[in-house]
Amino acid sequence: MGNSQLTPKIFACRQSTALAEKIAKSYGLPLGNVTISNFSDGEFQPALVESVRGRRVFIIGSTFPNSDNLMELLLMLDAAKRASARHITAVIPYFGWARQDRKDRPRVAIGAKLVANLIQAAGATRIMTMDLHADQIQGFFEKPVDHLFASTIFLPYLKDLKLENVTVASPDMGGSKRAYAYSKYLGSEVVICYKQRLKANVIDTMELIGEVEGRHVFLVDDMIDTGGTLAKAADLMMEKGALSVRAVCTHPILSSDAYTKIENSKLLELIVSDTIPLKRKSSKIKVVSCAPLFADVMHKVQDNRSISGQFLM
């Protein structure tokens, strides 16, 4: 049997175990066995318990803070490289540090480029991720990048709501491309919010470009962190006469008091994927799993088949 036909191995970093179990089940393979040795000072050492020599290896781990999550992925990649894996795909459902994609002021790091360099140096021969904060991050890698879109899983869910008079909204100017892609599929109108900072770090005002009166609104974004922008946008749109406002966000970072903001806002529903595990449940949060999408693309990568048919946008 040639190396290309050997059954691949799927391993999980601890921060993404729940998602990795779903991906492996959807793929049709068990998760590979990993042991972690912990030192008293907080250092840790992952070990792949089974042989990966000559095989394709998928290592699943989102790199949201704290930095131990990134470090664990790097150590796992290095372990696979030193165990003579033939191909090593870093499956990073949420690519953390992506907001540092450029020098937006003097004397700052470009964190996303640094992380890309580390992942490649650790041994990744391919990268698979979803809804990067900035598309150009793909260019930070010298290895192939499979950049998946969460619209593939979200749009069927939104269609199934069978709502009429739908409008897609972007919470800021930077997300307008994503909003137009959703609107094209849904055949809907688009509105855009923009924030105006009247005094640094003190007052934010939000304005709305477009009409939402009598409309069901889908606010789309790649991530939700503190939830302040989305909560404010939802409240503004309801004041402007919207019938309902739902937010669709790929990566549920939900830091600080985000859960409280969401629950107290006029958002009817927050629809997220499971790239990052939720810290707690909420009656307003609906999780749509990205596991079948990743499993399908992993199958296609293993079989050297095109994945372009996966993309709804």
Structure report:
Strands 10-9-8-11-12-13-14 form a seven-stranded mixed β-sheet. It contains eight helices and 14 strands. It is of the alpha/beta class. The chain has helices at 17-27, 68-82, 111-122, 151-160, 176-186, 228-239, 258-264, 291-302; strands at 9-12, 34-38, 44-48, 56-60, 87-92, 126-130, 145-148, 166-170, 189-199, 203-209, 216-224, 244-252, 269-272, 285-287. The longest helix is centred in the N-terminal third of the chain and has 15 residues, at 68-82. It has two domains: 3-147 and 291-310, Rossmann fold (3-Layer(aba) Sandwich), CATH 3.40.50; 151-287, 3-Layer(aba) Sandwich (Rossmann fold).
Spell out the key features of this protein.
single chain; 313 residues; alpha/beta; 8 helices; globular; ribose-phosphate diphosphokinase; PRTase-like; nucleotide-binding; transferase
Q: What class would the helix/strand composition place it in?
A: alpha/beta
Helical coverage, percent range: 25-40%
Radius of gyration: 20 Å
Average pLDDT, rounded to a whole number, is 94
Overall body shape: globular
Mind telling me which CATH architecture of the largest domain this is? 3-Layer(aba) Sandwich
Please report the number of helical segments. 8
Instruction: State the separation between the terminal residues, measured CA to CA.
Output: 38 Å
Taken in chain order, the helices and strands follow as EHEEEHEHEEHEHEEEHEHEEH
What is the count of distinct domains? 2
For this entry, what is the oligomeric state of its chains? single chain
CATH topology of the largest domain: Rossmann fold
How many strands?
14
Largest sheet data = 7 strands, mixed
CATH class of the largest domain: Alpha Beta
